[in-house]
Amino acid sequence: MFHLTRYKYWFFLVSAVVIVPGLLALIFWGLNLGIDFTGGDIRYLRFANEVSSTQVQKVYEANGAQDVQVYVLTDAKGSIPAQQYAYITFTRPFGKNEEAAVKSLLADPKYKLPNATVAGQNYSQTTAGSDTGLMVVTFDKPVTAAQIEAALKTLPPTDAPPVGSTTTTPTPTTGKTATPAATGTAAATATPAATATASATGTPGATATPTPATSSVTYPIAVKNVTLGSSPRILEVQTQTFLSDATEAKIIATLTNNHGPVYQVEQDSANPSLAQTQTLKAVGAVALAAVAILLYIGLAFRRVGSLRRAFRFGTSAIIALLHDVLVVLGLWAIFGHFLGFKVDTVFLTAVLTVIGFSVHDTIVVFDRIRENLSRRTSESFETIVDASLIQTMTRSLNTSLTVLFTLAALTLFGGESIREFTLALLIGIASGTYSSIFNASMILVVWENKEYRSWFRRKPAAPASQLGKRELAGTRA
Q1: What's the helix, strand, coil split of the chain in %, to 5?
Q2: Which end of the chain is less congested by CB atoms within 10 angstroms, N or C?
């Protein structure tokens, strides 16, 4: 039988070689925390044309956004082909009433258009230096830009955009403002009698309200162009900078000028105080999992001889678990420094999954040791551990390798949004397989034999009688 326990300190050395650089990286560089733990803004953008994540990232960084990460997502409405997304650009910003009018025109039976649904809109944006508006409409059947332009050839004057959505203050047409201004001046300079006469003969609405309400002001508007989509993707932009409305409007304007129509599907933000709470919860989750595992193993292995020995089994499993966590965290500190990898809630999910997988593999080995302890009472503890490892190694390796092959394929060929998650799982499960076989059981052997007592103890000097014999033997030689 092959005696693995003879090489336990070599196995410990391999683990140290992997863990120590990561620990140094954690100490000097720390983890590159993501938006979930630091706070920031999240934007979901949909483009009419194909745009790379790098192009979007550069625009955000050029406008002062820090630690920008761009992920490519699959649209929840992926059943609608990209070509059935119509990006309608107007000659000026538009309002809610105009939006309703456009919907009505697209649904008019005389234009014979497919069923249309408004997917989103930018009531006011800047395109090529001028204020425009954008409406994104989906159709349930293929449609051409010419059909849409024909239906929207004549549009009613638009109302003002909703408050907070304009990039500049719109200027109403001259015809709408001349009369109220003149009426206001006349009322101010006329005599009291004249004012009474004017009130009796003038237009009641004009004299009662010298300055008309914004909602009553309308502006001429037309369709500037219609672009049918070619990109089915949504780009998720995460930045650890809280962007102002003006900055976001400038970014959208730059993206529109460089890459064609784009609209913001959704926006979100992560609060720094919530991020700190999330960090504490993450640490608490790992600690709670470790305590629960220790209690469970202590209860499950209570028949290995004594409660103290059961505690050794549980503690050895926890040490192997921490080994795997440190391997993943250390490598992530290195990857975060050189490759920009982030630590977020998805990474935390991967770490917790690694913990569960590692303990599962360790328990399989420990359970066989427990069985052999009751069967092979005349053999030494090292021999029992060696036999248990040989008996369970095939099962452990087969189970782990099937998972590792799948994770390797997902890491190499999967989507960009899950690559860091699958890589963390790949590293953690590989480490868990190693630690459950070559670390957890070896720690148990060292503890059982109390070998740790001699680690830092100096070797006793040889007796004088033995030294004399050695010198005499040397002389005779």
Answers
A1: 60, 15, 25
A2: C
pLDDT tens, per residue, the chain with 477 residues: 578 899 999 999 999 999 999 999 999 999 998 888 888 899 999 999 999 999 999 999 999 998 898 988 876 555 788 899 999 999 999 999 999 999 999 999 999 999 999 999 999 988 888 899 999 999 999 999 999 999 999 999 999 998 766 443 333 333 333 333 333 333 333 334 433 333 333 444 443 334 334 457 889 999 999 999 999 889 999 998 988 888 998 999 999 999 999 989 888 887 777 767 877 887 887 788 778 877 887 787 777 767 788 888 888 988 998 999 999 999 999 999 999 898 888 898 899 899 888 888 888 898 899 888 888 878 888 999 999 999 999 888 998 999 999 999 999 998 777 899 999 999 999 999 999 999 999 999 999 888 878 777 665 555 555 544 444 444 444
Spatial strand order in the sheet of 40-47: 69-74, 233-239, 40-47, 262-270
Smallest CA-to-CA distance from 358 within 426, 438, 299, 435 is with 435
Distance CA(138)–CA(46), nearest Å, equals 13
Tokens standing for 4? Answer: 């693995």
What is the C-alpha end-to-end distance of the chain, expressed in Å?
41
| Bridge partners (DSSP) listed for residue 120 | 136
For tokens 């190693």, what's the residue? 434
Q: Which domains does the chain have, with CATH numbers?
A: 4-35+273-452 (1.20.1640.10), 82-171+217-270 (no CATH)
- Comparing C-alpha atoms, which of 122, 107, 157 is closest to residue 48? 122
Q: How far apart are CA 299 and CA 292, in angstroms?
A: 11
The helix (run of H) or strand (run of E) holding residue 118 is strand 116-127
Rounded-to-integer distance, Cα 260 and Cα 127, Å: 9
